[in-house]
Amino acid sequence: MRIRNFFTIFTVISLTIICLYYIFFSFYPSKLGKEAYVDSNVNLENEKKIGLLKNKTINLGLDLKGGISMILEISEKDLLKKFSDNSKNPIFLKSLEKTDKKKENNPNIDYFSSFLKYFYKEREKMNIDFSLSDLFGIKSHIEEINYNSSNKEIENIIKKKIDQSITSTYNILRSRIDKFGVIHPNIQKINNSNKILIELSGIKNVDRIKNILQKKAELNFFEIYSLQEIIPYFEDINKKFFKNKINENKSLIDILNIPHIIKYTNNPIVGLVNQKYLKIVNEFLNSNESKESLPYNLRDIKFFWGYKKNQYKNKKFFQLFSIKKTNYEKEIYPLNGDMIVKAYKSFGPFNEIIVNIKMNQIGSRNWKMLTEKNIGKNIAIVLDNLVYTAPIVKSIIPNGMSQISGHLSLQESEDLVNILNAGKLPTSVKIIQSEIIGPSLGKESVQKGIFSFFISIFFVFIWIFFYYYIPGLYANIALIFNLIFIFGILISINAVLTFPGISGIILTLAMSMDANVLFYEKIKEEIKKGNSIRIAIYNSYTINGALSSVIDGQITTLLCGCILFYFGIGPIKGFSTTLIIGIFTSMFTSIFLVRLFLEFHLNKYKNISFNYHKILINKIKNIQWDFLSQRKLTYTISFICIIISFLSLFYKGLNLGIDFVGGRSYLIRFDHKVIPEKISYLLSKSFIENGIPSFPEVKTFGNENQLKVITKYKIRNESNKVDREILEKMFMTLKPYFNTIDFNSFKILGKEKSLGILSIEKVGPIIAKDITNNAFISIFLSLLVIFFYIFIRFKKWQFGLGALISLLHDIIIVLGIFSFFHKWIPILEIDQTFIAALLTIIGYSINDTVIVYDKIRKILKITPSSISFYKIINNGINQTLTRTMNTSFITMLVICTIFFFGGTTIRGFMLALFLGIGIGTYSSIFIASSIVYDLSNKNQKKK
Prior knowledge:
Layout: H1 2-26, H2 31-36, H3 44-54, E1 59-60, H4 62-65, E2 67-74, H5 76-83, H6 90-105, H7 111-126, H8 132-136, H9 151-180, E3 186-189, E4 195-201, H10 206-214, E5 219-223, H11 227-240, H12 252-255, H13 258-261, E6 271-274, H14 278-285, H15 288-292, E7 301-312, E8 315-324, E9 340-347, E10 353-359, H16 361-373, E11 379-383, E12 386-389, E13 401-404, H17 410-422, E14 429-437, H18 439-468, H19 470-492, E15 496-497, H20 499-528, H21 533-540, H22 543-567, H23 571-605, H24 614-621, H25 631-651, H26 658-661, E16 663-669, H27 676-686, E17 688-689, E18 692-693, E19 697-700, E20 706-711, H28 720-734, H29 743-747, E21 756-763, H30 765-794, H31 797-821, H32 832-862, H33 869-879, H34 881-901, H35 907-935, H36 938-942
Parallel strand pairs: 1-15, 7-12
Antiparallel strand pairs: 2-4, 2-14, 3-4, 5-11, 6-8, 7-8, 9-10, 10-13, 11-12, 14-21, 16-20, 16-21, 17-18, 19-20
Helix pairs in contact: 1-19, 6-7, 9-17, 18-19, 18-20, 18-34, 19-20, 19-23, 20-21, 20-22, 20-23, 20-34, 22-23, 22-30, 22-32, 23-32, 25-31, 27-28, 30-31, 30-32, 31-32, 31-35, 32-33, 32-35, 33-35, 34-35
């Protein structure tokens, strides 16, 4: 006992010191840390401080701080094109096309495996002897792939290259974000996929961060054609084709503003195009007729647009450059971004910002050769097919230095330096889901979350102290240590704390009381048998006592938490993280710490009472109800509820959130009450696609002046232009409902914002299917794992099947309630957090069921064979009734507190938990054990 007590004391002291250390730094005020969220202009010393802060401040999620969440998809199609050197082989292109179509219907497919399947089929169909070595055996892979390589060897090599490229993309994106100056970015690869989740709290400039993440950073240096070399070609194609392309009686020369450009000598641009003609000019110069008219000396020409826009007389003009395409295999001086050693900014003689590029040895040699060849001419520096600058070469540059200038802002120059230093992405990335939460909404969530947290803890403390008195006080002290451990571990592992995460902590703490209740009730049973208080405590904390029930209940909940962690992303992963940590810390404090307190109390005071409210306790303890006799009635009630649920699900369906169907969601606050139906009708007049009005779903969210608008308008088009178009249409439609507000005030998610858009969420159709599939998989796996665990643990299939049926019973009825009432209660929405609630319900319900089963098993071992199985089951339910009532009351009290005080954003989640735990408690008592009895054979029933 002394060794055990020494271990407990040492562990508690060590853990407490470490956790308090992390907690102290998480609340330590740091101006630098606050500024780093929005300002990337930090010097080296500040960057070191930010690095220190990263692991010592609490990592608040988006719903608590505001910011942006994105899921980026890495293009495996582009990687295959790259590895094949952009092969135009029809078998290759047809295989890619078919794989893309399959991916639309099933986003979870293994893209490369599916491509191979179609590749071999297409090859057989066309009867062409075209192998993978023909496709991928190019010069860049010559060391790994040759014509003697087998298809299986090539498949493994390409698969390895794809995996390496995804990892490389992940590392480059992380590097870019780290250089951006964000504290606690949450960046994670989504398991077994080509997707990356990025969560950045506190970000204000959303367009900037999107640009940083999606920019491929492919840097190249090109020779260019002068305007004098291009004009004859422009004049020729203008006469032949262009006059029919536009109805404003303007020539191509006029639209390109060449008369204006030609006045300036040494001007590298060949056109200055008004924004309204941009699309026409771009399509025309890239058309077949224009390309076929190219003279021989211009066959290697390519037109690129400039990075910067010119503003003239309130009109935007774009610069056009004519680039000499470079064939890197033939050129003796290839130059690209892979040769960059370092990029940094400096200031020119007129205080203009310059980005300096230092090249490696090969790059320096080639840069010298290129500048030597082009003295007196311009060289274009091109990033992602946009010309950033085209300086004139005045002399040979031998040291590998080049510069990008051109009226860059401080922010643009910093982003450019960060992107160049982080490196080029191996392939393109696409944002398929994004969520933007304004800081004001985050601030409200924090305040309500903290308030509901302390109210909940207060109620738990009061109830346990009221019911058990001194032992209850020790349970409460252990609860405080539990809180310290949970928060300390969360900070130390750099976990993201979300509002569902806070709910997970509160539920974990409420459920941790369950273990103490089980131990305390067992102690009372042992005392009733005539054992001394010391022997009673000792027996209760053994496997033959309450320990097996505690372990079984916690393991089943832990299994659900692990499945949720594996398949969940974002807030769900945060919820499962706190749940898993909480289970371990709760087990430690309940099994070791509370027992230590009880033994210390006995050593000092020689006695301790667990029956403080004897009248109340005796009334509960004296309940001896024949539960099994009511099983036909409860079966009938459950059957009716299940049938109604199925009918409702079939005819009324579910209120699926955009997590499952895709779309854009906006949370908008007005300065007075608004009618959702009227807003939906007005917006439908603006959201017209292919001549058909798109009616958005509009519902009150929280107060009567706050609406949630969900629209599927142009969801297939995920460009930033469409995002802005929707915002503009919404603003023009809703403007009469605001007293004074402009477009910028309406759309920008500013701090302390009281009106306009508070949060934005966008989910693409592909990721919506992905989320749906993962939801079904996680629920199915939870049920399967629980069935096998109980079957193995209790050695009877009846127990496993009884638990499985009762869990399905709980899930179906909760879904039925959400289906039946969703038209009257808007918060009954099926989203990712609802799946988290379902899995929590499964974990909680199975915890209840397992404890009843464990009690039945223990009674079976010690009961004479003359006692019927019927009576044993009834005794098992009755003997666990005190624990069931205590735990359910505490947990539902906590949930009600969070529901009423925790804010609108979490109410649907908490309502699902409240219903599920109530129904789960009912099924554990009336359904699960009854099924075990009815499934048992006659001999078992007699025994």
